[in-house]
Amino acid sequence: MLKNTNITFTGFAKMPNETSLPNDSSLNKEECLLLLASNSLSGDELISLLAARAKKIIHFLLIDNREMNEYLQQRIVGTDFLIPTSSFYESMEVLKNEKKTPCIVYCLSGGRSAQCLNIMNDMGFITVCNLQQGLYTYKGEFVSG
Q1: Number of domains into which the chain is organized
Q2: How far apart are CA 11 and CA 123, in angstroms?
Q3: Dihedral, CA atoms, 36, 37, 39, 44, nearest 10 degrees?
Q4: Could you count the other beta carbons within 10 Å of the beta carbon of residue 108?
Q5: pLDDT in tens, 108-124
Q6: Whole domain around residue 32: which residue ranges?
Q7: Which residue of 3, 11, 26, 87 shows the fewest CB atoms closer than 10 Å?
Q8: 32: part of which helix (H) or strand (E)?
Q9: Does a structural domain hold residue 85?
Q10: Which helix (H) or strand (E) holds 142?
Q11: What is the pTM of this model?
């Protein structure tokens, strides 16, 4: 849960207008699992994983670790949750039952999400990957609002 001044936000799970994903993934389930087993993904690898998720080949959670104003300006299509670093521990309550679900975290440059990856590993999350270099090098689709 994100607390910001007097407003309380919860996970922004699966926005209905965020379904336009790439359809060119050639990854099979084993290849997806291998990518998720690493702790770092390239933008192209994330695009392929999102396409595989859209085809129901693999399931994972995509988590934005930036702040609300950044999230509203632009986020990756398919983002499941906003869990900002400024309220990370409080916001993680939303994912307390998802420790076995693979998670991919991202931010603008990869620094904040790398910190969140380490914290999530310490909290018992089994599979957490960071989008290396964050949104700076991601060439996939974005949505705003």
Answers
A1: 1
A2: 18
A3: -40
A4: 17
A5: 999 999 999 999 999 99
A6: 27-143
A7: 26
A8: helix 29-37
A9: yes
A10: strand 142-143
A11: 0.83
